Hints:
Elements: E1 10-12, E2 15-17, E3 21-23, H1 40-48, E4 54-61, H2 78-93, E5 98-103, E6 121-122, E7 131-134, E8 137-140, E9 145-146, H3 152-168, E10 173-178, H4 183-188, H5 203-206, H6 208-221, E11 226-230, H7 244-255, E12 262-266, H8 280-286, E13 290-294, H9 299-307, E14 313-316, H10 318-322, H11 326-332
Parallel strand pairs: 3-4, 3-14, 4-5, 5-10, 6-9, 10-11, 11-12, 12-13, 13-14
Antiparallel strand pairs: 1-2, 7-8
Helix pairs in contact: 1-2, 3-6
Amino acid sequence: MAFDTLFSEFKLGDLTLPHRIVMAPLTRSRSSQPGDIPNDMNAEYYQQRSTAALIISEATQISPQGKGYAFTPGIYSNEQIIGWKKVTDAVHASGSRIFLQMWHVGRVSHTKLQPNNALPVAPSAIAVEGQAFTYEGMLDFETPRALETDEISGIVEQYRQAALNAKQAGFDGVEIHAANGYLLEQFLKDGTNKRDDIYGGSIENRTRIVLEVVQAVTDVLGSEHVGIRISPTGTFNSMTESNPQALFNYLVEKLNPFNLAYIHVVERFGDVTSNNEFDFVQLRRLFNGAYIANGGYTGKSAEQSLTEDNSDLIAFGVPFIANPDLPERIKQGAELNVADQNTFYGGDAKGYTDYPRLG
Ligand code: 8OZ
C-alpha cells in the first residue's frame, strides 16, 4: 500500500521531521557499571536507529533515587552527561534527532538499588506486585515509604536539573515519563495515590506534581523541547484508576497552556482488553500539540491513524529493536526481523547492535 502520510514531513516544535515514524523509548539495560554510564556500544545502537524521524531514549533515571532496574542509564552525573553526548553526537551525525526520556521509578525499585539501601519512595505506602530486577537477580518488591509533602519540591528539582543535564548532553528535548506505573503515574492514578495532602485525593491534587514538573522543565528548556508520555489505560506495575477519561482529559486541558511539543500516548501495552472504554480520539482532539500514538501499530494501521487525523506521529517500540532500518522496511513492505526476547534486557552486542539491515 502507499504510505503517503506516514512518509510526509512534520513540524514538531522547532524540528522538521522527514517522516512520521518515531522510535519509542526502550529499556535495554546495557549501560556501563559502576555509574550507569552510556557507552560506545549504546551510541552505536542509537546511531543504527537514526532512520527514525525522532528517537526517544530509553527511560533514564534523573537521580540515584529514581533508579529501579539494574544497568539502566542515568542523567545526573558528569560521566553520564559525557556518555550521553557520544549518543547524541552519533545520532546527529546521522541526521536524526533525539529526546531524553526522564524517569523516576518511585516504588518500582528495591532497597538493593537505592542509595544507602533506603526504601523506595512513592505517593503512598503500597507495594507493587512482583519482583525487581537487581544486580542480585529478581527480588520481591517491598512496601515503599510515602513521601512527605515537603519532599515533593525536591523531586521536582530532580527533574529540573535532569532537563539541564539533558541539554548539556546535546539532546534536542526531553520526554517526561508519566506512564507505565512509575512515580508520576503513581501520583496520577487513584489505586496508588491515597494521600490526604494537596498531592492526593481530587484529580486536581493528583495531577499537581506532574504540572509542577512540566513547569520546572519547560522553564529551563522552553516548551517546544518538552513532551510527556502517558498511559491512561495502562495496568503495568499493578496500576489502577477508577476514572481514566476524567483524569486524563483534565490533565491534557491543564497541559494546553504550556504549549508542549507533544503528548505520547501508550494506547496498548500488554493487556489489550483494558482500553475498550477509553476514548483516545477525544484526548487527541482536546490537546493543542502533537499527538504521538504508540502500541502495536503496523505500517498500515499507522497510515490509517494519521489519515483519519487521530495522530500526528506513530512510535514503534519492539519493531525498532530488531529492525534498525524499520522505516525503509515499512516503505518497501519488506519482511521484519523478529526481536529476540531473551536479549531485551542486559547483556552485550548480541540482540542489540547485530540485527541486520535490508540488502
Ligand atoms: C520494561 C522493562 C523495564 C522498564 C516502561 C521503562 O515500561 C519501562 C520499562 C519497560 O516505561
